[in-house]
Amino acid sequence: MNLLTDPVGITHYLIVGAILFVTGAVCMATKRNALGVLMGIELVLNGANVNFVAFGSEYLRPGVLGIGLDGQLIALFVIILAAAEAAVALAIVLNFYNNHSTVDVDRADELKG
Amino acid sequence: MEPINWHSVFFLVFALLACGFAVAVLLTSNIVRMAFYLVLSLAATSGLFFLAGADFVGAMQVMIYVGGTLVLLIFGVMLTAQGPFISMKTSAGEWTLGIMVGGLLLAVLLQAATSIDAWQPQAVIEGDARPTATRLGMGLLGARVDKLDEVDPTQRGGMSGYLLPFEIVSVHLLVVLVGSAYLARPKKRVQNSSWEGLK
Amino acid sequence: MDPVTTLPVLLGIAWLVPLASFTLILLFGPRMGKHGQGAGVLATAAIGTSAILSLIALFFVWVPAYDWAPEHHAAHAEHGAADHHDTGHGDAGHDDAHEKDAHGADEHKAEEHKTADEHHEWRKPYVAGEWYTLGQFGKLRIGISYYIDSLTVTMFAMITFIATMIHFYANGYMHDELHEITDHEVTLSNGHHLHRPGRFHRFFQYLSLFCFSMLGIVIAGNIAMVFVFWELVGICSYFLIGFYIERKSASNAANKAFIVNRVGDFGMIIGLMILIATLGTFSFGDIDTDGDGTVEPGIFSLVRTEANNHALVVPDGMVRAAAASEIAAGVEPSAEQIAKWRAETGPGGIGRTAYWLLIVAGLGIFCGCVGKSAQFPLHVWLPDAMEGPTPVSALVHSATMVAAGVYLVGRFYPVFTPETLLVIAIIGCITLFIAATIAIVAVDIKRVLAYSTVSQLGYMMLALGVGGWSAGMFHLITHAFFKSLLFMCSGSVIHAVHTNDMTKMGGLRHKMPFTAYTMLAGCLAIMGAGIPFMIGLSGYYSKDAILAQALSFKASNPQWGFLFYVAAAGAAITAFYMFRLWFMTFAGKPRDHHAYDHAHESPKIMYYPLIVLAVLAVVVAWPFWPVSIVALLEQARPEGFHETVNGVLVSNLTHPAEHISHEPNFHNQATWVATFVGLSGLGLAIVFYGLSLLNPAEVARQFKPVYTFLWNKWYFDELYDYLFVKPTLFVANRVAEFDKVVIDGIIDSLAMLTRMVARLDDLSDRYLVDGFVNGLAAWTYATGSKLRSAETGRIRQYVMFIVVGTVAMFVLISLYIS
Hints:
The complex is a heterotrimer of chains A (113), B (199) and C (818). Chain A has 113 residues and is mainly alpha-helical. Chain A has three helices and no strands. Chain A is elongated, with a radius of gyration of 18 Å. By secondary structure, chain C is mainly alpha-helical. Helices cover 67% and strands 5% of the residues of chain C. Chain C contains 30 helices and eight strands. In chain C, helix 18 (469-497) packs antiparallel against helix 19, helix 20 (538-556) runs antiparallel to helix 21 and helix 20 packs across helix 26 (664-690).
């Protein structure tokens, strides 16, 4: 299998998406900075977007009518929601910072059982 | 020697960039660098979108994600980036745990991604690239022009447009805008001044 | 005027007028005039009316009706008048029947005349009857009845007259009570003196009730009535002694007087119950109680039957009571059987038991008199009773309370056996000596007089006990005059110098001459001053009579001769302490110049009564008045005491007839003795206090133990405290402990049992019912607690969980599908 000559398929996109997803998830799991966690989320959403786009692409699976445009539409929604989520999350982080003078998510454990 | 498939080459480049910078985001502990690497990673991902034929989505990725969301994030970084918070170390135990779990997830996902034959690479259709912007716009308005020639009526029926979600998302964005502005405003100072005004 | 119809009306009105006054003051007292001043006027007017009525009854009804025998030998001469003695208000039939009876007696008497034994013939004149019947229970009848003899009439006149004087006096003495009073002897918890409204009207309200009660005792015709008024007197004295109720000492004194009297009254109830139970009648005199025309014999007639020449006989009722075990139910023993039983006077015999019943009845009644008349051993209350206002002391000590005891002994005289009389004499003797010795060292002017009263009451009891009935009663009358005078004088002094302490007086005769010289008259009277065999003050006659009777008793009973010596010694001591009092108060130099400078003669309303009483204290007993007290009293002499009587149980006990003591050998001797001891006491007082030749303080130091003993009043209060109060408190405390430990323990354990049952119930409720519910809750809670550790609050961990969960789901799904 030669990556330079062989055509790419959905599988390749899925692998990239999986890597991005896992990276984002691990990022969420390991970053103590609240903004780092936010970035992890962005990565996870991005990985999911890659998958949507890949499944909706008509280039990667010729002749097979996949989800088609739906994939791109949903990806668009995801981007929009990510933007909204980023705005809200940033507002939360700023509030948290105002109240606790820190952005360490480990300090935000008021909900501890 | 088969001719170099430039599609594949560019895919490889963009995939490596996206994955590499994503891993860089993961590995660095400096928040400012994280933001920078994330920009690069997301930009690379948008290249992947172009390669997949989703030109509008790729453009939106660059505009909204890279140009909007990440600027927002960097504002946050700048607002909170004080000495101790720029680089916050994570303990080795947590790293180990996170990588183990992440590896597990990756293994599952890779296994799933590679186990379906239909998803394997196939011959790429040659021809004019058809811009997707018009179709997407029509779809958002409720008209699925891409499915007009659908033979299967069941599929045609179920694939109506996205007008309602579009409306919901736009209202949602407005609410988010107002909400984040409300949340982020300096509450105490306003309250104090209003109290003083009352007095 | 017919005494049978007139006397009950006159004396009855005289008796009830104070009651009306009491009722009116009770209802309208505070509104009578300014600050209730009208109450004093009303009470004085009421008792004045009583006095006038009593004097009318004495001089215009009794004296003309029962013509008068200066010596008892001649008492029989007017037997016709005496026939009225037992007529009730009556129907003609009764009168006729009685008339026959009386004539029979006349004939009998005529025969006796020839035997020259006149005394048996004389019949005591009295009027007995019933105003109102309260109830009739079988043969027993209770009513408001009267028994009027010359003693009653004399006592009425004396009591009402002296009470009138005291009322006048009190109008002046109590004027402080007309406005708001600040009592300097009472300090409240806030440090201020008590400030209270005046109680002028209340004082006179009590005085009126007091007079009413005392007159009730005197006029009472049955023992139930006597007891009721006896107790009324007691409660009145309680009110009046405790008049300054806010003072602790006054309320204590009132309580003491009341409680000590209860001790005596307990014995009295026993005596009265024996009489009622065995004799079956309440009445003193012979009254036709059931209206059937026959006269039912009263107590006196039952004890001293006419058939037996009025000699003491154990009544049939007592014999029956003593022989109760011998008598079968429903069988009435015959007269012969009763006579046979009565004759069994040997040890264990029924007659002796019956005689003992009589003795106990007499002693029981005397017990009440001991309490009321403050005799040893119940004399402790009288000195403390000085806490009352002085007019009350005057009234209590002369005419009412303490006189009631002596009067009652005189009234029940027929019931007393010679043995009882001996006890009375001994008690009186002890009392007079103890009280006289204490009076020597007392410095409180009123206490000196109080002990003097106790001592004089002892004299009266002694006289009665040795058979001198008229001597005792005579002394009661004369003593009432001079003792009320002395008390009112002392009140006048206290009023002037505002202290009772004689050591702060002295020289007061210059400031208050009326008081001083009237008191001197009183002192001379109580000492019994007089020119031997010519003339003397009232005490001279009565004390001589007592001493003569004691001497006569000594002659008959040499083993009881000490009674006479003690009486003579008592007379000397009396003279000594009375003049000690007078000298300390009025003579010499002022000891407290502050008190002396503020002293002043009392207002006229106070010293006019003093002058009246002083004159009477001098002249009242003179035998050459047309109506002499002695002769008057002789008319009331109980039947059976005109001659010598002998004891039954105590051998060699003889009560000589009183007329024997009038014989020259006794009388002259007694007069000399009395004069000598009186003068010696007076001389001692002059040496110590009049001329200050000897310093009494040095003598007191010399005889320190004796002085301390007397100063502490023979330690009677301490003795009683140790003997009665402490043991009572001890027993009470033990009983209280028993109550607390045993009774409370039982109740507490019952309560504990209930609580245990309740607790079991509670436990089942709590552990079975609640346990189920709570257990469920606790289980839920415990589960939650265990699960809470999963909720770490760490976002990154949650992410990890999500990832792991996702992976696990994938794995599971893949396994399930494959």
